[in-house]
Amino acid sequence: MINIKIPNNNLEERTYIIDTIFKEFLGLEYSTSIDKEAINWEMTLQNGKKLSFEDHFFNKYPSSLEYLKIESFPSQVVFEKNRFIIEKDIPVLYGTGKLKETGNGFICGIDIFASSFFMITRWEEYVNKNRDTHNRFSAFESIAYKFNFLDRPVVNEYLEMLKNMILYLDKNESFKSRDFQFILTHDVDYIYKWDTAKKFIRHLAGDIVKRKSPIEFMKSIIGYSALKLNLKKDPFDTFDYLMDISERINTKSYFFFMAEGVTKYDNNYKSDSKQVKELIKKIKKRGHFIGIHPSYNAYNKNDQFLKEKKELENNLDTKITFGREHYLRFEVPTTWQIWDNNQMSWDSTLSFADKEGFRCGVCYDFSTFNILTRKKLNLKEKPLIMMESSFVYQKNISPLEMEKKISDLIETVKMYNGNFTMLWHNSSFNILEWKEYKKVFERVLLKNA
User: Fold this and answer.
1) Which of 350, 363, 345 is CA-nearest to residue 412?
2) Nearest partner of 134 among 393, 405, 420, judged by Cα
3) Where in 117-200 does DSSP place strands (E)?
4) 323 CB-near residues (< 8 Å, 6+ apart)
5) What angle do CA 89, 92, 94 make, to 5 degrees?
6) pLDDT (tens digit, 9 = 90+) per residue, 199-242?
7) What angle is formed at CA 4 by the lines to CA 17 and CA 360, rounded to 5 degrees?
8) What is the pLDDT of residues 270-298, one digit of tens each?
9) 286-310 core/surface letters (b: 16 or more CB in 10 A; e: else)
10) Helix count (H) and strand count (E) of the chain?
């Protein structure tokens, strides 16, 4: 067992991040003790070797929640090198590149604990109040984007460095084994595109006025006619296709359904409709999974969330324990606390709406933390790595560029045997804006599975 001595301040935060790193991520047995004289994170391995990480954060803010201010953000992020990292360099949010070998171990200047705490708790988003038009924290506001490491799971890099240091000092130590996984998820904002004649007529007007495409106008008429004659599926009815491709790579899809909301961004179908109930039966029969996609305003309203969860459980005859917020709306720490209050097992909201990458800095599931109550929650976060519509924000991106970016992210996650959690809406295939990207979806899955 590894013994970890910590300074006598910010104990809830320190205990949380130690447990997350050593128990959840690395699978190591450890004990902690408070040392009033300690100024760093001090580890004694089973063979007596010692590993020390300098404290460059919590000691500066010894009072509870004193750190929650802009001035506590990393003022700069430097990229350092040492013999234990697996990339060419490693981003240092808090600390220095110092690595000193002692007679019995090492002293490292990188404060991997405060840096990891910064990334996975998202306290950055509580302090920085800037938001987009949907009240979301933008990727472009994040420290990870500003210092050019959003596409790197920096917490995973710290874990690998820590593992290599421990193994150098004690080759008999063993760690949790992991396997790379695709986690395929689909937010069901719409069941059908053309469920009413009014919607179809509006679509035809869009073909002419917005898309300026007489060819698409004629294709739409032919497609709608074939739909009414039961010769063709609705463009958004891609559920069999999605389950087929999931099964081809030996996994199952997660479909997140909506209940009744209160805004113009909600209520595109009813969860008690015949069509939805038949779809649910089909998904269950094939062994795929059903979760919740809370409505636009449910991310910070417990009563609304609970109402929707009960509605889905009643109408879909399914216990609801996981899902993702609509529009990726998220508020630290409110959203996590709401999910935890309602006995949810995991959430997968945390990717940025406007940029792919590692919002939490990690590609492993982890227990969440309420930064205000200073309590570890039962709820797990399954970080979302990419959403297909995030690429819409990147102007003029071609299918090949999109495929390259997604494939690079997959290779990064594979390096750490992590979970590549991706979101591709069932409605993002058979319409003009997305038709050319269907092959991207297929290739990145079939090539990388």
Assistant:
1) 363
2) 393
3) 181-188
4) 256, 291, 292, 293, 294, 344, 347, 348
5) 165
6) 556 655 556 656 566 766 666 665 555 555 454 688 899 999 99
7) 15
8) 999 999 999 999 999 999 999 999 999 99
9) eebbbbbbbbbbbbbbeebbebbbe
10) 13, 17
